[in-house]
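ok, trying the design again with the full structure, not the truncated one.
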């Protein structure tokens, strides 16, 4: 389970609701990819099961000496990670929980399996909790099936959905959920977490904290996938080269990159941040750029392009990424995009 950093307001709210027996029965955690939605969902799920927290709620009349540090300061009590329930949650084998966090769309069979589990009573704890990640990717039939469960929830059931785009969910679903929208963390907090909890050395941590733009989960992925920064370097070099390439060279490149849509999306996100940085430099904006290590080449490039060209670049690349999410043919999409980028030669 990954470590929960930041989003204090959301944690405080959930903890307060739980401690006052006002736990929401359906919860939607929204926010950009890799920001901590699923980590927060799992934290809350573990807290609902933790035997120590359950015992403390019953044993509310404590003397000061018996209180833990968290209780004295009023900070939210964290799950203990040590009781049998916590350990089962951490190992993913607690009988009263259900997690779907696979890549790809969530299908009706998954909701049926969930409903079968919910039709039985809780085995070991007071709550049965289901986490369904990236629910914007659920099929319509899966959404409709879940709606029935949300409409008539059993008393001890808590359903947590996560979505990066809550607008893509059925309004009948969102209207039944308490919605928590997570915002990017300040880059200082990301930097601090990388150094303190992941022991990343200072230069590397600074770069990752910048590139993560508030999404700690992205930075952690970058530590675990050592190739990610190498790929970034390659994509950025490719983009600069493309700007001085001919139409034929651009079409060849589009053909090659579009064969792997995951990589294509990855490249586009790096290109968008780079062209946004270029726009900041071009317009003498005071906002610090993200790709600090690319400052000099960007400075040089900004002299070869007009503001309009840079703006076109940003909007063109953004549109290409949106089109991909709407299943436009990747190759055609990228070809059009690359041909519309400025020519610096
Ligand atoms: Zn525990």
């Amino acid at each position: 389970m990954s470590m929960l950093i930041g989003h204090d307001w959301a944690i405080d709210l959930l903890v307060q609701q739980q401690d006052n027996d006002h736990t929401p029965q359906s919860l939607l955690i929204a926010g950009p990819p890799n920001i901590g939605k699923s980590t927060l969902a799992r934290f809350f799920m573990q807290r609902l099961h933790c035997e120590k927290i359950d015992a403390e709620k019953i044993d509310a009349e404590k003397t000061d000496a018996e209180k833990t540090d968290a209780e004295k300061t009023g900070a939210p009590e964290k799950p203990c990670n040590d009781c049998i329930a916590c350990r089962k949650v951490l190992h993913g084998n607690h009988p009263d929980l259900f997690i779907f966090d696979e890549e790809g769309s969530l299908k009706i069979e998954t909701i049926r399996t969930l409903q079968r589990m919910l039709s039985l009573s809780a085995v070991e704890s007071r709550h049965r909790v289901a986490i369904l990640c990236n629910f914007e990717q659920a099929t319509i039939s899966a959404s409709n099936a879940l709606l029935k469960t949300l409409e008539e929830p059993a008393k001890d059931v808590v359903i947590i959905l996560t979505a990066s785009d809550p607008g893509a969910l059925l309004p009948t679903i969102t209207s039944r959920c308490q919605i928590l929208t997570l915002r990017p963390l300040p880059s200082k907090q990301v930097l601090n977490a990388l150094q303190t909890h992941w022991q990343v050395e200072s230069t590397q941590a600074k770069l990752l904290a910048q590139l993560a733009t508030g999404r700690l989960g992205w930075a952690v992925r970058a530590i675990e996938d050592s190739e990610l920064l190498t790929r970034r370097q390659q994509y950025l070099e490719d983009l600069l080269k493309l700007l001085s390439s001919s139409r034929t060279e651009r079409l060849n490149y589009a053909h090659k990159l579009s064969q792997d849509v995951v990589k294509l999306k990855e490249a586009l996100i790096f290109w968008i941040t780079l062209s946004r940085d270029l726009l900041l430099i071009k317009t003498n904006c005071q906002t610090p750029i993200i790709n600090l290590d690319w400052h000099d080449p960007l400075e040089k490039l900004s002299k070869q392009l007009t503001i309009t060209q840079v703006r076109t670049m940003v909007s063109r690349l953004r549109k290409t990424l949106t089109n991909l999410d709407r299943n436009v043919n990747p190759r055609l999409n990228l070809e059009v995009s690359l041909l519309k980028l400025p020519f610096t030669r």
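Keeping the full-length input from now on. The CA atoms of residues 18 and 344 lie 59 Å apart.
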